Amino acid sequence: MMTALGALRIEETEGLFRVPDLVLRADADYQYWLAPGATYGLVHDGVSWTVSGWPWVAAGRTYRLWCAGEPARAVPTSHGDARLIRGRAYLARWGPGPGWRLWRLP
């Protein structure tokens, strides 16, 4: 069973969403990376937290989650910062109800 960690603190521009202070790094920095209807997985690959998902994530490319110029260690939610724990996996997805939610997988 998944554990709800809270609603993500988000900003929206033209139908795309972002978590303030978090960016994805690959070939560029992506600030607005949450697309409605998508689910994103967060896992630690031994180097940092990586994000995978649909619709724009390119196969074979690694997207790393960064905060303030260093690898992210937490995600801001309505219940405070959710510390990411190595060895656990997380999902960011829309709903239930309005808004983006962060979930920890078993």
Give, in order, the helices and strands.
Answer: EEEEEEEEEEEEE
**Which range does the strand content fall in?**
over 45%
> Uncertain regions: pLDDT < 50 for 5+ in a row?
none
Most strands sheet: 5 strands, antiparallel
Gyration radius over CA:
13 Å
The order of strands across the largest sheet is 1-13-12-6-7
- Secondary structure category: mainly beta
What is the molecular shape? globular
Terminal Cα span:
6 Å
Level of helix content? Answer: under 10%
**Helical stretch tally:** 0
Q: Give the beta-strand count.
A: 13
Mean pLDDT metric: 92
TL;DR?
The protein is 0% helix and 49% strand.
Question: How is this structure best described in words?
Answer:
- By secondary structure, this protein is mostly beta strands.
- Helices cover 0% and strands 49% of the residues.
- It contains no helices and 13 strands.
- The chain is globular and about 35 Å long.
Task: Please name the defining characteristics of this protein.
four-stranded antiparallel beta sheet, 49% strand, mainly beta, 106 residues, five-stranded antiparallel beta sheet
